[in-house]
Amino acid sequence: MAGRDLRTFFEPKGVALVGARRNLGFGYGIPVILKERGWADRIYLVNPSVDELHGLPVYHSVSEVPDPVDLAVVLTPAPVVPRMLDEVGERGIRFAIVESAGFAEVGETGGSLQAEAEAIARRHGMRVIGPNCVGLINTANGFSTVEVIEEAFRPGPTSIIAQSGVFGNCLLDLLHEYGLFVSKAVTLGDRMDVNECDMLEFLKDDSETGSIMMYLEGAADGARLKETLAEITRLKPVMVLKSGRTPAGRAATVSHTGSLSGEDSLYQAVFTQTGTLRAGNLENLVEMARIFSTQPGPAGNRLGIVTGSGSLGVMATDTAVSYGLEVPPLPAGVAEKIRGEAPDWMNVKNPLDVGPSWMFSKALEALLEEPDIDMVLAITIIPYSVFKNLRENGLDGRSWFGDIAALRMQYPRKPLVVCAVGHSDFVSHMGEIAGPNVPIYISPEPAARALAAHHHYWTWRLGPGDGGFRQCY
Question: What CATH architecture does domain 303-462 belong to?
Answer without folding.
Answer: 3-Layer(aba) Sandwich (3.40)
